[in-house]
Amino acid sequence: MQNVARSALPPYLTQDLLNDLIARALDEDVGAGDVTTRATVPPETTAEAHFLARQDGVLAGLRVADHVFAAVDAALSVSWTKADGEAVARGEVFGMVRGSTRSILVAERLALNFMQRMSGIATVTRQMVDAARPHAARILDTRKTAPGLRLLDKWAVRLGGGENHRLGLYDMILIKDNHIAAVGGVRAAIEAAQRYRENGPEDLRIEIETRTLDEVRAVLDTGGVDVILLDNMVDVRPDGSVDTSRLQAAVALVAGRFATEASGNVRLETVPAIAATGVDYISSGALTHSVTALDISLKIELT
After folding, report:
1. 231 domain-assigned
2. Which residues contact residue 284 at a Cβ distance below 8 angstroms, ignoring those fewer than 6 apart?
3. Catalytic site positions
4. CA max distance for the chain
5. Number of domains, the chain
6. Is residue 120 part of a domain?
7. pLDDT tens digit string along 5-40?
8. Backbone angles phi and psi of 61, in degrees to 5
9. How far apart (Å, rounded) are the C-alpha atoms in residues 247 and 52?
């Protein structure tokens, strides 16, 4: 089987971090050992197992699977005919692992769990990116990720053609409604954020959430931000049609002075209408908090 080039790690995920994540996942799953495999499979048997896509989608997590198999047994040989970020068709065999049957069985579920989740995220991301493509809007993820898996979730978004928003609470100032309420208003929140940025070691971007046109006007009067988040300004009517009139009005008010991001009611069906308003970014928590895993199986044959 032909082997294709491995994908590069994203800038926020080091090999050490990936190794640590896999080690913790193996400890959780395998513990003191796979007693079923020990009880039923002779140690000397070898096998060849093939990865099969059971539905169309976008692959992600192949490099992670490489490291899972290597962590279980460095003698296992893994090869792929597809790369992370490439489309796969239902019924297509796209990879193979060969070696100790016991080792393959120990690693199988963890490798598939990573691949299925990441491929599910990459698949829906690609669908949203394609839906927004006729317009300039770019698809962003959010912090609504599985605890402990954020870096992999966000990597999967990148592999699907989306872009990463902030990684956590530490790499961007994002002023939301509760921050505004806690400090006493839009102007006070922005001015406090500006002072923090001026006195801090990093040149952090400032984004602020707005929910009404009056709040948008208040931000425009104050200035000093990089992005205006236009939250829940899209309504889905009972008949399924999408009302973007408030979002359109907000984008018109901003008039290109700052970058704009739309959030709330973002689903694959609503993305085309949202993108058509002229927003720069569309963020969707559904990319990662409502993951539908891509159906991938691994079929073993003794050699």
Report:
1. yes
2. 128, 139, 140, 141, 142, 263, 266, 267
3. 109, 144, 176, 209, 231
4. 74
5. 2
6. yes
7. 577 899 999 999 999 999 999 999 999 999 999 999
8. 95, 5
9. 43
